[in-house]
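Let us walk through a complete example step by step. Step one is to write down the protein sequence. Step two is to encode the small molecule, zinc ion, as a SMILES string so that its atoms and bonds are unambiguous. Step three, shown after the inputs, is the structure prediction itself.
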Amino acid sequence: MLINLQEIPAEGKTWKFDRKTAELNDFLSPLIGKQEYFADLHILPLSSNSGAYEVRSSIKTQLKEQCSRCGDDFNYQLNEKFQNILMPSLDTPRDAKFAKPNHFSDLHEEGPDVVEYEGNTLNVGEFFYELVALAEPTIPMPPADEKGNCSICKKTFKDQAVSYDSGAIEPVHPFASLKGLKLN
Ligand SMILES: [Zn+2]
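Step three: the predicted structure of the complex.
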């Protein structure tokens, strides 16, 4: 779905998308499959003729992930809000629809991030695909229950909650692995 930015009234415009309205289904399917999703989009022209727009968006859905602790599959609850500034692209390479999407990840610390657009349109499917892809956790973990166990598999991870990254920090004795070695 393409939104013609020039047709957005001065007071802004709001859209809602979900699996039934279907505009984003094909774009999001590589990330969420057939999961339900609820997305909001609000676009506000910042000043006349500047070509800049404020974009507030949110999406609630589930991502299929593997628990970083136990490796079991679980549905990661994604519920994120985003704020971006849309700016007309001055010089965009032919194959880059959104320049520097990696800046999205700094969003929460540094305020709205700038997303460039080409022509007069915003491709909503591509826009939300980028947001969801970048909101995907790098170390997915289901929440812990009150006992400190994985809420999905009930395995305890209390003592090893940071084991996935401690290996990179703690020096490993070259012969440490021999200690537990048993010869058959
Ligand atoms: Zn688990």
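Step four is interpretation. The pocket of zinc ion is lined by residues 67, 69-70, 72, 142, 150, 152-153, 155 (CB under 6 Å).
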